[in-house]
Amino acid sequence: MRRKGLIKKCAALSLALIMSMGTLAGCGKGGDSTTDTLPSQNESKVADANTDAKGEPATTDASHPNEARSMLTGKWVPADTANNSPVCVMYSNIKDAIPQSSISYADIVFESLVEGGITRLCAFFENKDNLVKIGPVRSCRLYYLFLAKEYEATYVHFGYSDLAEEYLKMDKMHSLDGMVYCGFYRSTDRVAPHNAYTSWQGIMDSVAAKGYPTTYPEGYRSPLQFNTDDNNDIDLSGDPIAQKCNKFVPGYPYNKPWFEYNAEDGLYYRYQFGDAHIDKETGEQLAFKNILVKYVTGDYVDGTPDYVNSDAGMALYITDGYAVPVTWWKLEEFGQTYYYGADGKEITVNQGKTFICYVEERYKDNVEVLP
Asked: InterPro entries of this UniProt entry (predicted)?
């Protein structure tokens, strides 16, 4: 019954896209086609075009020997790297905590409200064994736990909210809490709680001590389906429901972030607190090929958001100077999120780094897509 209800809701959302835009045009052009069939009940076991029958990353291009496509970026990487399950780190994102360390190495970054209008960032890393300072690391929130599971990631945090406590005890959750495990340290250049850091070696040592898996499970399917054309980006410019997007504002009230498109390299550069969002270790500004905006609903428990995790809703996909409305749906709280265009097909996104914003439906009017 739950599945049927979500299918009906997703269909209604797709119809809303069609009615508001007056077209059935799809989200992506120039990439590989995707299925218009809704995912199965056992969605975490559905293999995609980037995995073989055993769930191992597949190399189908003779020009890329011993390589496979990354589950996080869609780019060619060494085959053993592609099969390594990621690590995600909960970053503090208040003014006292910036600039953060090593966040520019992340392949996917999520941002969502926590308490009092502030946001936290959850950064997903594929294999970054050269990183010696990652953080500052802050406490877990429940909805980020579900995200970690979508990507089969080990979730690195320092403490947790009351809502997350029971979920952290589940065997299926692979998490490292800096209040319990080694591999974390305090820096002397900031005061607590914004001075807790870790390193890649510290994380890997703790993963080994816990006996957590370090590779994707058999049949794993990436939540993001990437364009497999290495020479041509997905082009939204000819899509009748797309609009120009040279600046995007997600509308978070405290850090007031925004993204600006650079047509020369095709990336969206991130700003917050009135200035460029910089990595302390590299001096580089954070930049992304894709932006996804997922509109969510939920309640607050003792001031902490408790978002509805398995549902369907509206979303935006932004890349290469254009934005297009899409829909999302997720059948189970520990399942994966799927994004669909107005034509009912699962969308593909461009190869590269992705930034994903969770925006509450009630704050939807604060989002700005600017030409």
From this structure: DUF3048_C, DUF3048_N, YerB-like_sf
